[in-house]
Amino acid sequence: MIEVRDLHKAFGKVKAVDGVGFRAEDGRITGLLGPNGAGKTTTLRMLYTLMRPDRGQVLVDGMDAGTDPEAVRRRLGVLPDARGLYKRLSSRENIRYFGRLHGLDEATIAARTDALAAALDMGDIIDRRTEGFSQGQRVKTAIARALVHDPRNVILDEPTNGLDVMATRAMRRFLRQLRDEGRCVLFSSHIMQEVAALCDHIVIIARGRVVAEGSADELRAQTGEDNLEDAFVKAIGSEEGLMA
Ligand SMILES: Nc1ncnc2c1ncn2[C@@H]1O[C@H](COP(=O)(O)OP(=O)(O)OP(=O)(O)O)[C@@H](O)[C@H]1O
């Protein structure tokens, strides 16, 4: 489980994150939805210990990211916004390299790689050098690499960015599988339809703050709108940057 309490982060005069708090439970897909510049990436970066908050607390399975970042990192699998791969290495070698960084033995790495390659349908790319990979092939490799240590909590920054319809559907299936295994899945998106299709719990963020949260039904009830799109627009206060 991931719990965020009163997170703040400013860049000079820009208050990127201005008091964000929410819980992402196990066995649930939680979506962080907000327009461009809302503070989603900055929030996620503080969650996965890439950036220190000015104020506030991040707890992962009860571990405090501020005082015990190593323990937090072990419990997290992260697909960051920058998905750099080692282009001279094959997909399998990229995954293996991360497995070794996590201190896993070779047999465990091999077994996890096979399982992830099957779940993500990577049979045709697993032993190809990643140089020249399509966006979808890169994302699959980056996700498999992020999950090699079998983390309980999975954070993905805009996981379907740049993917075609088939790849997006496959990604959604995969995230549901992670959820059904009891993991905590947290992802960000600026695309309402994406979040509506996938999430059990939606946290709407705008101008660095949480402006509404709940299931799709709860959000409709809270805003008094029948249509989810209208509910989002009402919660955010504008249509800017919301649509695909
Ligand atoms: N390293 C940085 N230096 C200066 N400003 C930053 C930095 N990172 C983020 N910001 C600013 O903080 C605000 C929030 O940015 P962030 O990337 O978290 O938004 P986002 O919700 O992820 O947006 P998008 O959907 O466009 O990726 C923006 O105004 C952005 O310009």
TrEMBL record:
Pfam families tied to this protein: ABC_tran (PF00005)
Matching PROSITE patterns: ABC_TRANSPORTER_2
Keywords (A to Z) from UniProt: ATP-binding, Nodulation, Nucleotide-binding, Transport
An MF annotation (GO) of this entry: ATP hydrolysis activity
Domain ABC transporter: 2-232
CDD domains: ABC_NatA_sodium_exporter
Family statement: Belongs to the ABC transporter superfamily.
Name this protein carries in UniProt: ATP-binding cassette domain-containing protein
Organism lineage: Bacteria, Pseudomonadati, Pseudomonadota, Gammaproteobacteria, Lysobacterales
